[in-house]
């Protein structure tokens, strides 16, 4: 009797010492490069800023389209106009989360909140639910991928960085594009930002890439996936449209 009680107590103690293992969830797909040969996807983070119009005009003048990953509050009237303009010009719109926080430092609920706020805003403003999310700083872990899978989103990274977000000069960014074209990979998934330097760098990059035989397409086209999960009717602004 004593031995049986001792064994039971030992087993209970051992059981309580073993951490609970969470059931493994499916992980969202992560794309780091295009899959369609001879395509280049020029992507632009951290908008929509005033530079968006010039970015769009440069792309359209070359018969090209790009992909914009928007973040922060986009309910401001001017920002709503920019979002609508980019979408109307045929560019792809994706999520860059709400507050541009490192998602790997957040809880499960906080990650979903960062994603949901942008998705809701885009549904309201242009009527679409984005199928792609770019995590700020390119940082993600399994928890982020699990949350993205539940939200049916693909994580979008890149295989070329123009350096504009870390202080690269126009000459340095152009030099990076020169090096890229010289290496001539089968495809290009380029990270850019809506910064003042884009006025010089983007036309240069377009010329170089098209001159090397690349088609400048959206991220969705270059990886062969749909850009949106749903396309509906935009909403009408009301008191709930706020940051």
UniProtKB/TrEMBL annotation:
Biological process according to GO: carbohydrate metabolic process; cell wall organization
Top-level taxonomic group: Eukaryota
Keywords linked to the UniProt accession: Carbohydrate metabolism, Cell membrane, Cell wall biogenesis/degradation, Glycoprotein, GPI-anchor, Hydrolase, Lipoprotein, Membrane, Metal-binding, Signal
Membrane spanning stretches: none
InterPro entries xrefs: Glyco_hydro/deAcase_b/a-brl, NODB_dom
Keyword Signal found: yes
Signal peptide extent: 1-17
Subcellular location per the Swiss-Prot or TrEMBL entry: Cell membrane
Entry GO MF terms: hydrolase activity, acting on carbon-nitrogen (but not peptide) bonds; metal ion binding
Every NodB homology domain range: 38-217
Cofactor requirements of the protein: Co(2+)
Protein name: Carbohydrate esterase family 4 protein
Gene Ontology CC, one term: side of membrane
Membrane topology, record value: Lipid-anchor; GPI-anchor
């Amino acid at each position: 009797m004593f031995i049986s009680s001792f064994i039971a107590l030992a087993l209970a103690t051992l059981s309580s010492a073993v951490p609970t293992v969470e059931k493994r969830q499916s992980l969202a797909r992560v794309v780091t490069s295009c899959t369609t040969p001879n395509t280049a996807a020029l992507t632009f983070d951290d908008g929509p800023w005033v530079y968006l119009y010039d970015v769009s005009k440069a792309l359209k003048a070359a018969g090209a389209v790009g992909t914009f990953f928007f973040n922060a509050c986009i309910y401001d009237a001017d920002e709503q106009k920019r979002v609508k303009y980019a979408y109307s010009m045929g560019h792809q719109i994706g999520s860059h989360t709400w507050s541009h926080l490192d998602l790997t430092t957040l809880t499960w609920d906080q990650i979903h909140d960062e994603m949901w706020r942008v998705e809701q805003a885009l549904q309201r403003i242009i009527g679409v639910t984005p199928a792609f999310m770019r995590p700020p700083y390119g940082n993600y872990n399994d928890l982020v991928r699990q949350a993205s899978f539940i939200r049916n989103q693909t994580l979008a990274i890149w295989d070329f960085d123009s350096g504009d977000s870390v202080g690269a000069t126009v000459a340095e960014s152009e030099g990076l594009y020169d090096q890229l074209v010289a290496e001539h990979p089968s495809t290009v998934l380029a990270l850019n930002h809506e910064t003042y330097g884009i006025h010089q760098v983007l036309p240069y990059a377009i010329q170089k890439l098209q001159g090397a035989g690349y088609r400048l397409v959206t991220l969705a086209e270059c990886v062969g996936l749909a850009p949106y999960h749903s396309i509906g009717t935009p909403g009408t602004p009301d008191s709930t449209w706020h940051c």
